Amino acid sequence: MTALPHRLVQALDRFNAAHPWDHNAHYHRWILRQLPRRFGSALDVGSGSGDLARLLATRADEVRGVDADPAITAQARALTANATATSFIVADALTGLPGKPHDVITCVATLHHLPYTEALDTFRRHLAPGGTLVVVGLYRPRTATDHLLGAAAVLPNAAIGWFKNRGRAAAPPTSMTARTRPADMSFSDIAAETRTVLPGARLRRRLFWRYTLTWRRP
Asked: What pLDDT digit, counting tens, does each position of 166-198 carry?
């Protein structure tokens, strides 16, 4: 890398740090578009501060958020104090999910923290027949396509950060305060393992260093 690109990268890093925005919340409305207009119960795995769970509650009769972090779960409860149909529990995503089957399961920026195949199998078992699983995840870029898509996101990422913060420096949104570790699986590995557990699942690389997975249980 020459000195100029390195300086540009450093400048972009400083700019993005001063104008943060939530890449995961960017896909929340997309998630809603994958779901029926109304459904019975929803489970949001890795629910964080509860933003997605509250959106799901506009469609669902009942929403349960699950997160392993007690502090952020307490924050989600405080932000959702008046919503009787939405609740949050502290639990392990593999062993502590509520027992009954759910019509919808969502999982955003959490799956790369878990054993991938085991997590998908757990979600499948907790999904009701005809139910929908929607995942927004992170992957490790390895191919030329991965790196080109990452490069294509650099300028839009900065522009959206500027727009959302109205040109002013800002602190990270509440939902971004928890740091996540980088993904270690490539998109091709994710696709291969998904096919063994969820035949017919639809996967797609997305902008802003994410992929999406949707699957409807027969």
From this structure: 545 445 555 544 556 789 999 999 999 999 999
């639990």: which residue's tokens? Answer: 91
HEC states along the chain? CCHHHHHHHHHHHHHHHHCCCCCCHHHHHHHHHCCCCCEEEEEEECCCCCHHHHHHCCCEEEEEEEECCHHHHHHHHHHCCCCCCEEEEECCCCCCCCCCCEEEEEEECCHHHCCHHHHHHHHHHCEEEEEEEEEEECCCCCCHHHHHHHHHHHHHHHHHHHHHCCCCCCCCCHHHCCCCCCCCCCHHHHHHHHHHHCCCCEEEEECCCEEEEEEECC
**Which domains can be identified in the chain, with CATH numbers?**
35-139+183-216 (3.40.50.150)
